[in-house]
Amino acid sequence: MRRPGLGYIVGAYEHPLRDAPDRSVAQLHAEVAAGALADAGLTKDDVDGLFCGPDTPGTGPLSMADYMNLNLRHVDTTNTSGSSYLIHVAHACQAIAAGKCDVALITLAGRPRQEGKAKGSLKRADNPNQPDFEFEHPFGIQILGVYAMVAQRHAHLYGTTAEQMAWVKVAFSHHAQHNPNAKLRNVVTVEDVVNSPLVADPLHRLDCCVVTDGGGALVVTREEIAKSLDRPLVKVIGCGEAPYGQAGGYAEITDSGARRSGATAYAQANVTPADIRYASIYDSFTITAMVQLEDLGFCEKGEIGAFVSDGGLISGSGRLAVNTDGGGLCNNHPVNRGGMTKALEAVRQIRGEAHPAVQVPDCDLALANAIGGQLGVRHASSTIILERG
Amino acid sequence: MDLDGFINPEPVVQPENQPFWDATKEDRFLVKWCNVCERAHWYPRARCPFCFSDDTAFREASGEGTIYAFAPMRRTAAPYILAYVTLAEGPTMMTNIVNARPEELTTGQPVRVAFVPTSGEYKVPVFTPT
Questions:
Q1: Which range is the signal sequence, renumbered to this chain (chain A) (predicted)?
Q2: Is residue A93 part of a domain?
Q3: pTM above 0.80, yes or no
Q4: What is the ipTM, given to two decimal places?
Q5: Do B74 and A199 touch (CB under 8 A)?
């Protein structure tokens, strides 16, 4: 059954660089914008809506809109960190439906490797006025430590093992070997992962994502414009967004907002998890992808260890093809934010433009999910579901 | 894993939580309660996150809890154990586990509050196995 498109993704571009010492952040934003517009067959003068995340330098959209000299009638600076860009897709569809813009540009770009963030040596830019700062910063909160606690508790509750977590990295490394731009193209084994140094038990170094410069961009537009362009049609048919916090001290850290963002998106798209042919799932750590896959309904809660084992996420031979670009664990994690690259590979899969070795045959329905903020503390999950038009 | 080198960063104290931090100087652990719905919450807020009343108050806590989750931070300049502890009063709080080896810790293990200095004038409530 053909579902109505909420909007169409007509342009998608991933910056080929993973280290960008010779470029400015603004330049990278403009490069990915130009790439996505060229992919769509549009120009920057067609853009009338700009969607910016926290990586965009300046006050909201103002500096980049000026740098690119855009003529805008709609801006949106929704910031949920790494999940912003999938929420931007949803908000772009809403703005287009409301007649507020026709061609929406979404960009992500930056160079954390050049700015000392590759090894966590730069302090997090938390605001002391955020109310949790006072009761978390004094205990040495770190992204790594919080995710390690999620993994530790998942292992405690469900018996999830380090070897099962390692299978996530193994699967994505199998995909990354086919991606010439991937930061890490070497295929690794479960033994490689569990024998890499423990960084915060139970997480090993190879359970952690890469840190990369670069970025990506998307162009979203209305049906009439999409059908006038010479690109395969990628319809957005469902969207969900869900913040998840600590509930006053009574939340479960092995749960995530993906349960609610996924349910919202499935309902809008009128599909079930069993219908999904390909999934892009945020993988800042191996456990990140595992919690979301459970909460998105691809398996029962607590059963993800078995689901991912024995190559469960490898395209072609596994239970579900996930992160066929190599994901954040192997390919790309620009500006330490995952949502953009998740949408990009889902678009490639729907178009049939993923690498032939990892392309899902006849991929007519794909899901992209991201977490912004941190599992285990507070985050926002965003889900989009795409269908071939 | 040598935990002795870690110095807790000093808190940035907000006006609504001054009593909490003042009490740490006397090794007293306070938890915020709502006087209307009679539930304890964490982290402390001026307004109850459940019924949204502003009639909240700090009360002396038992100092008893159990480990909810923990992560030995092995690769930091000074290693430490990040943890969530579920308090006897109900809510779960971020903290550290001290005076313990990570290999000896388990989820659900009873712990008791202790106070350690920070880089500033206040102490922080951490937990140690009982």
A1: none
A2: yes
A3: yes
A4: 0.98
A5: yes
